[in-house]
Write a structure and sequence with these properties.
alpha/beta, homodimer, Lyase, Ornithine Decarboxylase, Chain A, domain 1, D-serine deaminase-like pyridoxal phosphate-dependent protein (chains A, B), 350 residues, 8-stranded parallel sheet, 29% helix
């Protein structure tokens, strides 16, 4: 067994989660293009493709390069990249081995991409803001961006959005309605302008079950493969579906509490406004991690007896994407056997 | 230049910070044993030793192994390790090349260490809780732990604490007083029990200037080499002393705000209760990062004109230790030249 703390994947649960999203997409007649930033792991992306995914989504060029190097041949970098000569060259290189698309959310970005990507096969999707208010243009401005892109000779594949405002208690269904409304309006505008979208892409793990598959043609969830304490606390995935945990050891009983050897350097420091602590313990659902530093998690066990010093406890990280990005290896367990899976795209932010 | 986002170290400021702490320790007649978990970087630890550090502190066995492999010969793992056969073997192996000590904060931990470390040269320091309430025993319980350790034949070097409650506005001076009171009491108890401490160790970056060098014989600050937005906002280090920034690019003007290509996967997701955002911008001290996701920082520029798309902006991470642990390389700048410094102990949580 590896030394604690380490991240452990329950392969049976992982397969179940992969299958559930694949079925949802297949039954709805839409494509599933999972976001691999969650796991950054070639072995897991292969399971997703084997279950019917049409391709993968990444957040960065470095992630895209890693997966293309491992044979993935259809990648959408779902991010409004601002290209320069170097990144445009890296992107163009990828098109020798894969179908490649990137996001764009401004007329200037479209013009810049057109200038740098020349007559390349890289396609663009215009990002729409459906209420998360991070990146993306309002639906009524999609035509301006798409026209600027088309003018440079680049192919505009369609539109995409991220309904990230689904990450709040009670918000997923409404976020999915916002997503459908914004994408529907954007698609109508593009069609009216003679640039009908081939792809209308959305999706987030909290809103997934509410996605309007009459509007969307593609889903890009990421977290669904593992789940995490955020999904648990939002009521999106029950703890029994969570496929990744951090195995920890009890190192201290200081102050009559349990202190674990896992901290923000393996769990991540995420704590959303709705989170009740810094991660959750499946064996102790009433417990809360009340204090987290780099290598300590202080647990309030809500009156339960203290597990002995040296014993093992599993923790579900709040935000699994950031936890995975802290380790070089995931340990996937099936029938008591552990396999080491490299986090191949770890740390590739650029 | 590396692609953004990347972490950049201002070498002149780094040297200045290293010198200031070295002077403080030398003038007070105490040893400086910097915590290398902040930088995990051999090149920076060498600068600290060259400036007079007596050795290094680490949080994990993996960090200790990395530094010993690079020639560091005096390491204190300032953590109450719960040993098993494997980790005890790794620890004993280190003693061939270095003077090694670990922390302990329970009678059971001392007995366990004694059982597994046999007649090894590994020394113990008893951890005292001085008010942070994470790990460590109250000062009046130090003798019990030290006696249990001494009974096994292990050498007890002394006591240590971490005044982590210095991390709050206005708290550093009082935290330093708590530290001195707890360590002083612990040292008296040990002396009265015939186990006088050779080392009385404390220190944190916020409380460093207030440390009672009549009580402490050793200081273990970590963050002081770089500083970060936490130190800036606590008033401990001015922005002009901050030696590490994340260089980012403006990728979007969505919603009339600036969106940068740096998110929680390079800055870390830390946001202390007193933090005013998710990092600070030295060129725009009034600005705040109001929203942070994995690859986006949304900035409210407080009315300033939007920097153009594609332009560069520097961000000071909230908590530099977690930011550094996300990258494989630091880029150290001096006189316009960049040197790539590996984050040699990145990700070594165990």
């Amino acid at each position: 067994m590896p030394a604690t703390p380490y991240l452990r994947v329950d392969l049976a649960r992982l397969r179940g989660n992969i299958r559930a999203a694949a079925d949802l997409a297949a039954n709805g007649g839409v494509g599933l293009r999972p976001h691999v930033k969650t796991h950054k792991c070639v072995e897991i992306a292969r399971l997703q493709l084997a279950a019917g995914a049409v391709g993968i989504s990444t957040a960065t060029l470095g992630e895209a390069e890693t997966f293309v190097r491992h044979g993935f041949d259809d990648v959408f970098i779902a991010y409004p990249l601002w290209l320069d000569t170097t990144s445009a060259g890296r992107l163009t290189d990828l098109t020798g081995d894969a179908r490649v698309a990137i996001g764009v959310d401004s007329v200037e970005g479209a013009a810049n991409a057109g200038r740098l990507l020349g007559g390349s096969a890289v396609e663009l999707l215009v990002e729409v803001d459906c209420g998360h208010h991070r990146t993306g243009v309002p639906p009524e401005e999609v035509v301006a961006v798409a026209t600027a892109a088309a003018r440079t000779g680049l192919s505009v594949r369609g539109v995409f959005t991220f309904p990230g405002h689904s990450y709040a208690r009670g918000a997923p269904a409404e976020a999915a309605r916002d997503e459908a409304a914004a994408l529907s309006r954007a698609a109508e505008e593009l069609t009216a302008a003679g640039l009908p979208p081939r792809v209308v892409s959305g999706g987030s793990t909290p809103s997934l079950a509410h996605s309007d598959l009459g509007v969307l043609t593609e889903l890009r969830p990421g977290v669904y493969v593992f789940g995490d304490a955020q999904q648990w606390e939002l009521g999106v995935m029950p703890p029994s579906a969570v496929a990744l945990t951090c195995r920890t050891s009890v190192v201290s009983h200081a102050g009559g509490r349990v202190v674990l050897d896992a901290g923000s350097k393996v769990l991540g420091a995420d704590r959303a406004a709705y989170a009740t602590g810094y991660g959750r313990l499946p064996e102790h659902p009433e417990a809360r991690i009340v204090m987290l530093s780099e290598h300590h998690a202080v647990v309030d066990l809500a009156g339960a007896a203290l597990p002995p010093l040296g014993s093992r406890l599993d923790v579900v990280p709040n935000h699994v994407c950031n936890a995975v990005n802290l380790v070089d290896t995931l340990f996937a367990e099936e029938s008591g056997e552990l396999r080491a899976w490299p986090v191949a795209a770890r740390g590739l932010n650029a």
